[in-house]
Amino acid sequence: MNRRAALRLLASAGAAAVAGTGSYGFLYGRHLLEVTRALVSVHGLPAALTGLRIGLLTDIHRSRWVSHDDVSSAVTRLMDERPDLIILGGDYVTWGDRDFVQPAADALSALSAPHGVFGILGNHDDDHDMPAALRRRGIQVLRDARTRLTVKNEPLDLVGIRFWTKSQMDIAPLLRDAAPATILLAHDPRRLTEATALNVPLVLAGHTHGGQVVLPLVGAVAAQKFPVVAGVGRRERTTMFVSKGLGTVYVPVRVNCPPEVAVLTLQAD
To answer: Are 248 and 207 in contact (CB under 8 A)?
Structure first.
């Protein structure tokens, strides 16, 4: 075999491998839902809040590619875990598609937890229809807002910011006089920078899809700009957890990056 023929053979093999990987990611990979259970250390966490279990479901992207059954299955898996509190991390639809706003909210309607269900907005969500649809389903949407819960007689503050709220100066007023146990809900993991500067003990985020396509040796190419792509990360006294999310965007494929619902158990740092 000459060099040119060998190169053609390699190119053909490479194309076949890519096609096969893409087909697997479309037919199977994007449906292999996992439950991720993680211990999350939080600086200064009051003893009463040790063991608090938070369910995190994000990047749903209800669309022609992410069906009602896909979302309902994730909701069922999360409810089976019986979390104390549920957080929705944004991107309920894709590109603000109004046709799926109500279906997205409907698919989440079975969510409930002793301390409530709270959501924030992602970059694919509009600022009116989506939060209104979620509120009708009993989900409190925090749009640059803070709410205080009382868990075992201990205050726990949730601060939810929109994707478009990025400035430390815009986030700081929301944290004024916040409880020692405060969780920043930020769709974009890049808000770790601001959270660290503001001494926020815990940040919950999504947006990256865990990279969605994670290649051997290369990793999650599409998510390398984020400080944490998936799972637990730490910067100084701030801990962050980033969920790989449920849906897909750009291409309906997941490779080496299954969709997930996350259940986080808090422990003192």
So the answer is: no
